[in-house]
Fold this sequence. Notes:
alpha/beta, five-stranded mixed β-sheet, single chain
Amino acid sequence: MKKLYDPDSEKPYRLSRTRLENFINCPRCFYLDRRLGIEAPPGFPFQLNSAVDHLLKKEFDEYRKKGMPHPLMEEYGIQAVPWHHEELDRWRNSFKGIEYHDPKTNFVLFGAVDDVWINPKGELIIVDYKATSTMKEITLGDAWKSAYKRQMEIYQWLFKKNGFKVSDVGYFVYCNGLRSEKNFSGKLKFEIIVLPYQGKTSWIDRVVQEAYECLNASLMPRASGRCEYCAYREAASLVE
Length: 240
């Protein structure tokens, strides 16, 4: 059962990275979901992406056990090794993740990270796995990938809030399913690209506070002009 936000409750309220991203996209939908229990229709699960994610974790874990860099790190000149920590499995769990209790809002913010590397300076490097299939060059320049960047920045912020020394530079391990093969033969081949990204976390405290103020308001926010769900509800209400 979904736990709704109660402004009068003194208990800490768990708020995931995904829900915070929902607030950024549309405060009204965020309010409807977390305060009133009316959730937007869910997206379809990407099972192939999940399989790639699972296999990458297994592969990097083998090098984690050995304390050695993965060949991709050597290929891209990244001075690091997969980081071993007893809490890593918990931090990867979507329902647990790495947590931070914000005393100003009484939110327990959390997010599930894909991987963490460590460099010779002792800085943690946040890593996110992505899977796609495109004939275009893989970059972080697409406008819709701003959500990916915020995702990494929130992970960096969570680790910083937990007292860890975190590198500003994280990496996206991008697996691109190749469409240029002559046939399928029950195998999907991938090109793997590692993209660096320099995160900025200074915006997050402000947005967390804004999300808190949103949930504590007596009236829900106005519909967002860029939200497809809000536009659908408005159009449907006109004909109904």
